[in-house]
């Protein structure tokens, strides 16, 4: 008899549906969403009968829309481009022109969806993907409700995926949540964070809870501290300066991606693997964050910075304030480092450090778990002592994998110690590359599995923490200063000082 409960691992099968993408002429649709659906088709994962309807404001025919998607798919698809597979997929790709606030456009969309189902034998399941600019989120949701498209037909379902940013602060997030939940039930709402679709992020729970060598050590008794780093070696290319001026590193990356990773490494074991079972534990972590709710606490625990002119990858680059669409007097951070404390029994006294920056030496996202040193009574007298402690590194991107640093004796007649590394790479260990994050997330939404999507309370608790920092930076009488670092370096001296206060150093990537 199988000792495991089947209900802990069961998952609904993805069913045929119509996927309506709002903002279908944008970069996200062409570079990520449609290539993800294509790769699912290549792997045999996409249910037969899935239809893709692009909804946007530009004039295009079905054929023009398909042709543009095919052209970019040939360039970006991880599995290459197979003309036969694409031909079958393209037969079920359509384009619908409408303004986002035009009621008639949604009425005709409903009619067209019914027509497609009738002609091609569809079931009537609907997945709406809001990939437009954030200012249109409200309009799209309200018009879907007015047209009755939010209501599932008998035996069918209607769901919505909402892209980031999900609000710009707690107030706007609450407002958007009210609009979403007045249109779709929370169980049918999927707030997407593509970091959670990455293979290594999904593997965090398995690493922690399925390995007896780690699970008993995952607490304040054995762990000194953790670091989460997101380094980017790009600046404001492609006119991104205008967007970044409104967001900054804290709101663009920390509020969603990095706090989500934090919740996965710090959460308690869930009661089961259901979506709410996992998300219940994640939100407890965010709710347990000690609040940096005064300018003094923010100055002590958070560093913000902008890059100055320098060299990245051998190329000369501008400083942040000289970038296109960036104000010469900008007070928007392109780098942020945060020291966090989680006030729970498991993590009492263990600092977590998060850093994110633009124009750093390389592109990399990783989590490093730094274990406490072993007692130094045996090897302390050796020349050089014991060279550092054990560090578990979880690489999220680009080279997904896990490594463990430990100490070993150097071969020879004398007793000398040196750190060595055990390394695991997804691509080599399993003989194939990891699927793109959007592939897993789209398939989960089609299957009705919300585990890797943010719940309403997760989003709001994260914004509650971030708002205190933003208020200290932009609304207090004595805001903390803006630090600077040379492009191509690993960040400002102030960030090094932040972690050194606790006796630690940033891990060199």
From TrEMBL:
Domain Glucose-6-phosphate dehydrogenase C-terminal: 205-507
Entry binding sites for NADP(+): 57, 99-100, 164
Organism of derivation: Luteolibacter pohnpeiensis
GO cellular component: cytosol
Annotated substrate binding sites: 194, 198, 232, 252, 358, 363
Enzyme Commission number(s) of this protein: 1.1.1.49
Name of the protein: Glucose-6-phosphate 1-dehydrogenase
A Pfam family: G6PD_N
Keywords tagged on the record: Carbohydrate metabolism, Glucose metabolism, NADP, Oxidoreductase
């Amino acid at each position: 008899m199988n000792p495991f409960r089947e209900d802990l691992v069961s998952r609904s099968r993805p069913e045929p549906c119509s996927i309506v993408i709002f903002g279908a002429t944008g970069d996200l649709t062409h570079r990520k969403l449609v290539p993800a659906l294509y790769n699912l088709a290549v792997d045999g994962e996409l249910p037969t009968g899935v239809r893709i309807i692009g909804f946007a404001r530009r004039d295009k025919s079905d054929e023009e829309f398909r042709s543009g998607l095919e052209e970019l798919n040939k360039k970006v698809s991880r599995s290459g481009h197979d003309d036969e597979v694409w031909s079958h997929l393209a037969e079920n790709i359509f384009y619908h022109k409408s303004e986002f606030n035009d009621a008639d456009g949604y009425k005709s969309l409903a009619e067209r969806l019914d027509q497609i189902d009738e002609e091609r034998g569809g079931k009537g399941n609907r997945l709406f993907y809001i990939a437009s600019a954030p200012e249109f989120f409200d309009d799209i949701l309200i018009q879907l409700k007015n047209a009755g498209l939010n209501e599932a037909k008998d035996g069918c379902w209607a769901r919505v995926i909402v892209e980031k940013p999900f609000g710009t602060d707690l107030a706007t997030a609450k407002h958007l949540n009210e609009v979403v939940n007045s249109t779709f039930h929370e169980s049918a709402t999927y707030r997407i964070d593509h970091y959670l679709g990455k293979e290594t992020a999904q593997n965090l729970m398995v690493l922690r809870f399925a390995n007896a060598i780690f699970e008993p050590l995952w607490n304040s008794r054995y762990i000194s501290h953790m670091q989460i780093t997101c380094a980017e070696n790009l600046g404001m290319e492609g006119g991104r300066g205008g967007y970044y001026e409104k967001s900054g590193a804290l709101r663009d990356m920390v509020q969603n991606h990095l706090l989500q990773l934090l919740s996965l490494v710090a959460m308690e074991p869930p009661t089961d693997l259901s979506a709410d079972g996992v998300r219940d534990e994640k939100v407890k972590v965010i709710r347990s964050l000690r609040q940096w709710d005064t300018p003094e606490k923010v100055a002590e625990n958070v560093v913000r910075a902008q890059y100055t002119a320098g060299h990245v990858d051998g190329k000369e680059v501008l400083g942040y304030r000289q970038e296109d669409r960036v104000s010469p007097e900008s007070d928007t951070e392109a780098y942020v480092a945060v020291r966090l404390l989680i006030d729970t029994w498991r993590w009492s006294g263990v600092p977590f450090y998060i850093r994110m920056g633009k124009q750093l030496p390389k592109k990399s996202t990783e989590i490093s778990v730094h274990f406490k040193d072993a007692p130094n009574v045996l090897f302390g007298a050796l020349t050089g002592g014991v060279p550092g402690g054990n560090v578990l590194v979880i690489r999220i991107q680009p080279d997904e994998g896990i490594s463990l640093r430990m100490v070993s004796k150097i071969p020879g007649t004398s007793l000398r110690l040196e750190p060595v590394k055990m390394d695991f790479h997804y691509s080599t260990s399993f003989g194939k590359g990891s699927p793109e994050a959007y592939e897993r997330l789209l398939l989960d939404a089609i299957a009705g599995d919300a585990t890797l999507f943010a719940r309403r309370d997760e989003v709001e608790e994260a914004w509650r923490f971030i708002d205190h920092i933003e208020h200290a930076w932009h609304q207090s009488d004595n805001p903390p200063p803006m630090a600077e670092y040379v492009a191509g370096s690993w960040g400002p001296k102030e960030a090094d000082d932040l972690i050194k206060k606790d006796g630690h150093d940033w891990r060199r990537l």
